[in-house]
Amino acid sequence: MTEQPSPEDPGPPDSWQELDDLYAVRPPWEIGRPQPALLDLARSGAIRGRVLDVGCGTGEHALMCAGLGLDVTGIDLAATALRAAEDKARGRGATVRFLHHDARRLTDLGERFDTVLDSGLFHLLAPDDRPAFTSGLREILRRDGRYFMLCFSDREPESGRRGPHRLSRDDITETFEDALRIDAIEPATIEITLDEVGIRAWRVAMTRV
């Protein structure tokens, strides 16, 4: 029997259709507000222009950007999460476009963006899927556009269960060095609903040059 991801340590799914199953109940990374590491960027003015939120989930970061008056698109493959995001947008009177779309096929959007946000998407990608993502990312970002990523760090202990890929600084550098300029890789925390400590993470800032 294939081991299933536990609520404590979800992902990567065996197939991307399993993403919907992760939203059958509230997953631990859905904290009902933006992750502080990304909220800090919004408050600093680092997020600007047309924004794409990849793996947007139930839309907290897309809605955060809409609150700044920005043009925002959120994409995800979990239809359940997207419905929740649309409900939130209606309830808050916010204008955000949410699309059912595969982040490994970004160029199929046929659009360009100034900022791309990624809260927990990249660390779900299998190594074989990373080149398609990074190539697409470079294509859709305008020159001087920024990519901000929040991902599991290799400083987070392995739990013994199947979980998101723990990424080292070298993993990040080797994956993105031919696509984007890496500006900063900083220790951060991914807050979760299960405990107050959260997950050790990296907040990464990159620029399309």
Structure characterization notes:
The chain is of the alpha/beta class and 209 residues long. It has one domain (27-207): Vaccinia Virus protein VP39 (Rossmann fold, 3-Layer(aba) Sandwich). It contains six helices and seven strands. The radius of gyration is 16 Å and the shape is globular. The relative contact order is 0.17. Mean pLDDT is 91; it is low at 1-12.
- What's the helix-strand series? HHEHEHEEHEHEE
Uncertain regions: pLDDT < 50 for 5+ in a row?
1-12
Please tell me the CATH architecture by its name.
3-Layer(aba) Sandwich
Named CATH topology: Rossmann fold
Layout of secondary structure:
Blueprint: H1 19-22, H2 36-44, E1 50-54, H3 60-66, E2 71-76, H4 79-92, E3 97-100, E4 113-119, H5 130-140, E5 141-152, H6 169-176, E6 181-190, E7 199-207
Parallel strand pairs: 1-2, 1-4, 2-3, 4-5
Antiparallel strand pairs: 5-7, 6-7
